[in-house]
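Morning, I've got a small favour to ask if you have a moment. It would help a lot if you went through both lines with me. Thanks so much in advance, here it is.

***
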Amino acid sequence: MRYLPKSPAERERMLAEIGTASIDDLFAVIPPEYRLARDLEVPRQQAESEIVEYFRAAGAKNSTSYASFLGAGAYRHYRPVIIDALVQRGEFLTSYTPYQAEITQGTLQAIFEFQTMIAELTGMDVANASMYDGSTGAAEAVLMAMRVTGRHKAVVAATVHPEYREVLHTYLQHREMPTALVGYDAKTGRLDLAALEAAVTEETAAVLVQSPNFFGVIEDIPAMAAIAHTRGALLVVSIAEAVSLGVVRPPVEADIVSMEAQSFGVALSYGGPFCGVIAAKEQYVRQMPGRLAGQTVDGNGNRGFVLTLATREQHIRREKATSNICTNQALVALMATIFLSVYGQEGIRELAEHNLAKADYAAKTLGAQPGAKLLFTGAPRFHEFVLQTEEAPAAWSQRLLGEKIVGGVELSRWYPELKNATLWCATEVVTREQIDTAARTLAAKPVEA
């Protein structure tokens, strides 16, 4: 009765009300071959204490003792314990969209601080109060560029995260907004600038690129901006790894920046929630989706905060809508705000340098093993790199798992030309010993059957 609130008598009354004698009669329209004529094969009912113990045992299998070299848009960084302590305060945890400024000053100020720090990091004039994630943020940025320019075509770099590109396709496929895909240089892993120049036309609204790109390579943003702007298109730069901005020059030549801020104190949590961001030049602010918090003064001259330009992030009239975003991501943005406040400018730079050094050591160590080589060495990179092996990744990954190490992401699922190539990531939580163990295991010959 705890989970099935309708009693047998209540069910009988419901069946009688609709003129059906039994549950079987209710489902008689379903052909017999599609009906289950036996009880479900589920374990017996358990007491609450038994259920708790079951999930404790299951959770223990997800041991944090595994070293992970996974990245590809979702990054493991250390989360200061103060983040959870603050975001679980009732004032933040239970608050909804802060329409009433007089009772939500704390939430509005937190949003304003988040926007300010994101604008400083990205080199843009204004930032919104977070999107769903980096993928939807990139798609919304392209739509924003289309509204600004009045054009309806986009050029997308093949070095943009493949799943980001899939989300963009979902957004555009029924809107008669075609996209052109531009390939990459096989030596550097950077976008092919000659191909980009050929693809951008007078009908192009947006050029979508990513830096560091999906291979971990830093793109030539000034050159891309020059190509886009020559044809009147806007340059949209997607950043999947926010920590990179601690050492990588911000894409100030861009018109719109879409960023995933998950690395700033947001736990991976099996895929979400994440923290997408859109930042842009000030002249485009009225076409920016999502929520904006602004600073003002009250009748007594005291500083205060309000939602500005629009009181809500979704619009009632479809023709006025800038987005389909209609949720409150402020709690996740607050995590990033606390993270950035704890680390500060110098701390973020030191964190990025730590990541850079770890990845450089990992790349050199793994790339030096027999049968392995680094790809895309002709351009600077951040904390991800592509490793190609003579042995199939499925074989050596099992050996790594035996050492409690999760290896890189196989790239052939998205890039068939990159056979036996994997994308590796080394952040500050990966130790030198784990890198050395991964290298030894990778080089070990398979045991003969």
